[in-house]
Specification:
- Strands 1-2-3 form a three-stranded antiparallel beta sheet, with no helix packed on it.
- By secondary structure, the chain is mainly alpha-helical.
- The longest helix is centred in the last third of the chain and has 47 residues.
- 75% of the residues lie in helices and 4% in strands.
- The N terminus is likely disordered.
- It has one domain.
- The protein is built from eleven helices and three strands.
Length: 322
């Protein structure tokens, strides 16, 4: 089937070999059927998720996250696989982190070559996480974008994300630096470590949405940290509960996917594959599910926080005018 597209009367018209002209897809034409099918699928996905217009209960926030995941999974699963594959590729070439976790790593023996695979993999994986966030956030705001646009948007926002992450690491390290100073003064003790851990965890809750705001609000890294603090300020315990429940859900999903992956590997006769390669493949498969799941939970939380802040601002304006 051959067709010719041309402009006419302000609309694109298509002349088919069968002799009819139309400005819309014709389901009786085989050439149009794939486009019609994709349009129907996109419409079904859009119907699965409607962004909330008012603050939600914690259970509703989690439900919105799952609906967003289901609606966008087909669009972001490829990016999630790439992100997980690249971020974990260091395991195949370098075992620095593994030796560190096992207590067999001596920092004096570290070299530049030991750090490069982990650093490059982490940065590239972070970039693809940003692209997934951009595409899911665009869909959630009823402005869907293609993969190419998501990658371009992630590239534009990546410097701001790096500033945000570095500033977050600096703030996160301050309680531990103070704890180390206390240990030097009063001596070692478990209470000192606990005193350092508590403010660090509090900072995580207050500043966690900042990495999302870099994309969704299109602001700089430092501005994202400040806005994140203001959003969570009056919803600290609520945010803590949602992040805790979300972490448990993602951990459970990771374990389930890992067990399924190991079972499939055993049934397929991959027993001769090295442990590192098997772990890498299982982690990559798990990341295809858990990465979009965590981002969907994060975006649902951010949407709820923004709605609550908008309600507080509106209430304050009403009181001021009265």
């Amino acid at each position: 089937m051959r067709s010719i597209e041309r402009q006419g009367d302000g609309q694109a018209t298509r002349t088919h070999a069968r002799g009819y002209r139309t400005t819309a897809h014709n389901p009786t034409c085989r050439q149009c059927r794939p486009s019609v099918t994709l349009h129907i699928v996109d419409s079904m996905e859009a119907a699965m998720y409607l962004p909330p217009a008012s603050p939600q209960l914690i259970g509703s926030v989690l439900d919105n996250a799952f609906r967003l995941l289901i609606a966008t999974f087909r669009q972001v699963v490829g990016l999630a696989v790439v992100a997980s594959a690249i971020a974990g590729a260091w395991r195949l070439f370098d075992d620095t982190l593994g030796n560190l976790a096992a207590g067999n790593f001596d920092p004096a023996d570290a070299s530049f070559q030991d750090v490069v695979p982990v650093l490059v993999g982490g940065l590239v994986g972070l970039y693809f996480h940003l692209a997934i966030t951009a595409r899911m956030a665009a869909f959630a705001s009823n402005r869907p974008i293609a993969i190419a646009e998501a990658l371009r948007r992630a590239l534009r926002r990546f410097p701001a994300l790096l500033v945000c992450v570095l500033a977050f690491i600096l703030l996160f390290s301050l309680p531990f630096l103070l704890g180390a100073a206390l240990i030097a003064v009063v001596g070692p003790g478990g209470i000192v470590g606990l005193l350092a851990l508590v403010p660090a965890l509090v900072l995580i809750v207050y500043l966690y949405p900042a990495t999302l705001l870099v994309v969704t609000a299109n602001i700089g890294g430092v501005a994202a940290l400040w806005r994140s603090f203001n959003l969570v300020r009056r919803n600290f315990w609520r945010t803590t509960v949602i992040l805790s429940v979300g972490s448990i859900i993602v951990l459970a999903a990771t374990m389930v996917v890992g067990l399924v992956g190991l079972a499939v590997a055993a049934l397929a006769g991959f027993g001769n594959v090295s442990v590192d390669l098997a772990a890498y493949l299982v982690e990559t498969a798990g990341g295809a599910v858990t990465v979009p799941l965590w981002i969907a939970l994060s975006l649902a939380l951010l949407r709820d926080l923004e709605l609550r802040r908008e309600g507080e601002d509106l209430s304050a304006r009403i009181k001021a005018s009265s």
